[in-house]
Amino acid sequence: MTAADNALHKGFLRAEEFRQFARLASGRGAGRLRKVAEFSDGRVESPGESRLRVLVREMGFRGTPQLSIRDGDGPEIYRADLFVEVPGSRGLILEYDGRQKFSNVRGSSQWTEFERQASRDRGLAARGYRVMHVTAQDLADPALLKSEIRTRLQSPV
Predict the structure, then answer these.
(1) Which domain holds residue 108?
(2) pLDDT of residue 140
(3) 58 and 34 fall within a common domain
(4) How many CA atoms within 13 Å lie on the side-chain side of 49?
(5) Which Gene3D superfamilies does the UniProt entry name for this protein (predicted)?
């Protein structure tokens, strides 16, 4: 899944062509290829986000990658890595924090990135969104991570 999401994201594959190819495939692995083609999404920006999206799907929830959050009718103010829809609530935003996020990619310090993240989380909370940060270490224990996500999804605030 991570390879398919990445290929779509970087433009190496076009979604419709990939799905058409998968529909025509036969033999061993063709069924799995069709499932990957149907679920793959070029909006996913990293392997960690891809793995997180699969985990959420395994839990029976629908996740929307790179959800644009706007202030009313205005411009985008936030973009959520993965938004998990929950009927009757604002849902849960899952943010995958890989090493690159705090590795001075944008020319800023780790502390600046931390401050930016904290400010963003406060802004989302002020708009009624719940945010949960996930790391590679969290993904290494899927059972525990699923339990933590379920707990967050069931909490009223």
Answers:
(1) 43-154
(2) 95
(3) no
(4) 27
(5) VSR Endonuclease (3.40.960.10)
- Helices (H) then strands (E): counts for the chain: 7, 4
Enter the pTM of the model.
0.81
Polymer length of the chain:
157
The CATH number of whichever domain residue 102 belongs to comes to: 3.40.960.10
CA atoms of 8 and 40, how far apart (whole Å): 8
Q: Is 107 left (phi over 0), alpha (psi -120 to 50) or beta?
A: left
Domain identity same for 30 and 2: yes
- Do 28 and 54 sit in the same domain of this protein? no
- Phi, psi of 67, deg, nearest 5: -70, 125
Averaged pLDDT, groups of 10, the chain, 157 residues long: 88 89 90 87 92 93 91 84 84 88 65 86 89 95 94 80
Which of 55, 103, 100 lies closest to 82, judged by CA?
Answer: 55
Task: Please give the pLDDT value at position 66.
Answer: 95
